[in-house]
Amino acid sequence: MNGIGSLVWNPIIAREARTRMRSKRTAFILFCWLAALGVVTILAYASAANQSASVAVLAHSGVTVFGALVAVIVALVLLLVPGLVAGSIAGERERQTLDLLLCTRVRPWRVVIGKLAASLAFMGFLLVASLPILSVVALLGGIAWGDILIVVGLGALTAVMIGSMSILFSAISKGPTGAIVCSYVAMFILLVGPLVLGSYLLAQGFASGVSGSGFSSSSGGGLIAGPPTVSQASAAPPLIMALSPGLAIGSEVASISSQNCATGGFTTIGGGFSSPAVYNCGVVTFDRIDSGPLNGWHIWQVFTVFAIALSALCIGLAIVALRGRVPWPRRAQPEGT
Amino acid sequence: MITGTHLARAFGTRMALSDCSFEIDTGAVFGLVGPNGAGKTTTLRILAGLLQPTSGTASVDGVDVLTHPQVVRERVGWMPDFFGVYDRMTAREYLTFYASCYRIPRARVARLAEDLMDLVGLPDRMDMPVDALSRGMKQRLCLARALIPDPPVLLLDEPASGLDPRARVELRELVRELHSMGKTMVVSSHILPELAEMCTSFGFIDGGRMVAQGTLEELTGGRDRSTLRVNVSGDAQAAAVALDGVPQVVALRPGDGCVEVDVHAGAEATSAILQALLAAGVTVTAVNPVGSSLEDVFLRVTGQPLEQSA
Questions:
Q1: Nearest CA to CA, how far is B275 from chain A (Å)?
Q2: Does A332 map to a domain?
Q3: Closest Cα to residue B199, out of B167, B154, B163?
Q4: Which of A29, A167, B215, B236 is buried deepest, with most CB atoms within 10 A?
Q5: Are the beta carbons of A328 and B70 separated by less than 8 Å?
Q6: How many CB pairs under 8 A join A and B?
Q7: How does DSSP classify residue A46?
Q8: Quick check: is A301 in a domain?
């Protein structure tokens, strides 16, 4: 084996996938996943159709269903990924099979990548299984494929980021329980922390009269702002808030929803954000940073950079932690010798 | 050849090993004997390349565990005292997985798995779920796993713990077979009789130090006497009379159907006793050593019996 084959060689992925698919729990997760998506799709479509019989609103129902599906998928990803990933390496340690694995030619980085990839592949499997339901959105129309890809990509990136954090806890914890608890806590902090901190800073700025505007969560998943007010915005709050996967995905979905109603350039809405100038859907969303060094960046772009950096950091630390479990020479021996 | 020179290992403030030195010849079955907490597992983990000694050096098959731990890990078959198995896998898949971890070519894996299962006596359990195997079968499967890269050295940590008598006999036979294949083995245990029957040399470890090492003859060579129990049919007193005057006999204690005889150490003592009894017309039904010679040596070098230490 050489070249690409040697690089991607990872027997752990195949073993994890095989044993996972034999578990009754897997069938149960798949059932619950599809049931949740199916129910939400039906309810969202029925809700949109009941609001009005007008053609314009019905045309918007695709966006409504899409928003609801994205919200459910993201929620399920956030719920499932820590549970799937955090127990993987810690479980090997608890079973006392980790040393047996490290005695072989599988290097620690392959263990980390293999465990993470196997769990994320299962999430990919769930997404593929839900394609028939997601195709309803395509049937209803109203959303560009590019937008769908961005949202799906953000969802996948969120899964990778949460998974990477979980694999780090898995590598440093003594048992799976501690790793799973830490992973869920970290996920919750990452989801809510930036929003709370950013909101607090915005409120402070608003109080001092520097910048800001009142805003709150919208049912569509994004934050909505009040009337455009202040132009001198602080760069920190929007940047901090953009680190939350909830805001990144929510703002993108809300932006898609707004664009589906009407478009009209960008308007500064204060607090360091700007938004498409749309009003006829009843809400104004923001999806861009409007100040500081990242002026003009989409929120999802900021989140993407952050998620990739955090994932790389967590994976690197997990590899270091696993390498520390057994002795290594100062200069590593060539693999496969 | 396996060597350890002044090995020490601290866990926090506790010294698990201190100044532990030993040499194990190629092809030997080395019994590492000591009570729980004596440092057996620590020694084996260092030799397996899984633990860095705090000080001292060790080499396995000519490879230094400090400078080339990864090479050592690949040359050693390591069987820990406690280990788990993966759920929802058959024994065949278990071995196939580890074979792929050792980068054994796929074309060879199926045959290798069958050969190893044959070797460890589990050919009919190939497609049985691993988690459904008995403790003894899991031990043998783990040994088959350790043999996948065909290592010249096997390190077995308490391989017989938790096994029933039959499984222990099967394990002993397996160790003998591996010995005949030329494998160098280090087998740890705190149960002396099971080691005495499978090992060619021994090392006594206590309090993190190797207090004695050598073959059974070398270890017992310093002792001037041993005790034999001679079972006879008929009058034990007559047997005692017959043995009185045999040069190798030091003391006699006739009992009910048997005589305990203290003799000068050496192989000729048993022969002399049997000849004297046969000459006197006494029917001998059994001659057995009283107690384990190894246990006596352990008692002598550590000052306390192994069971008490454990």
A1: 55
A2: no
A3: B154
A4: A167
A5: yes
A6: 84
A7: H
A8: yes
Question: Angle at which helices B91-101 and A11-21 pack, to 10 degrees?
Answer: 160
Interchain CB contact of A22 with B (< 8 Å): yes
**Given 3-state DSSP classes, what are the helix, strand and coil percentages for chain A, each rounded to the nearest 5?**
70, 5, 25
Q: Burial, A157: exposed, middle or buried (Cβ in 10 Å; 0-12, 13-18, 19+)?
A: buried
Least Cα distance to A68 among A36, A49, A44 occurs for: A44
User: Which residue, chain included where needed, has tokens 């049985």?
Assistant: B128
Q: If pLDDT is split at 50, 70 and 90, which confidence band does A232 have? A: very low
Instruction: Please state whether the predicted TM-score (pTM) of the whole model is above 0.95.
Output: no
Residue A2 lies inside a defined structural domain of this protein: no
- Kindly indicate whether the ipTM for this predicted assembly is greater than 0.95, answering yes or no: no
Beta-carbon separation of A329 and B78 below 8 A = no
Chain A environment of B52 (Cβ under 8 Å): 327
Contact B103 A336 (CB under 8 A): yes
Q: pLDDT tens digits, residue range B184-238?
A: 999 998 777 778 778 899 999 988 899 888 887 777 765 667 778 888 888 888 8
Helix (H) or strand (E) holding B23: strand B14-24
Does residue A328 form part of some domain? no
Question: CB A103 to CB B80 under 8 A?
Answer: no
C-alpha dist (Å) from residue A86 to A33, A169, B230: 20, 6, 64
Distance from C-alpha of A183 to C-alpha of A205, rounded to nearest angstrom:
32
Residues of B in contact with A106 (CB under 8 A): 101
Structure-token pair, residue B92: 């065949």
Q: What is the rounded distance in angstroms from the CA atom of residue B141 to the CA atom of residue B151?
A: 16
Q: Is the pLDDT of residue A266 over 90?
A: no
Show the domain range for A57: 13-323
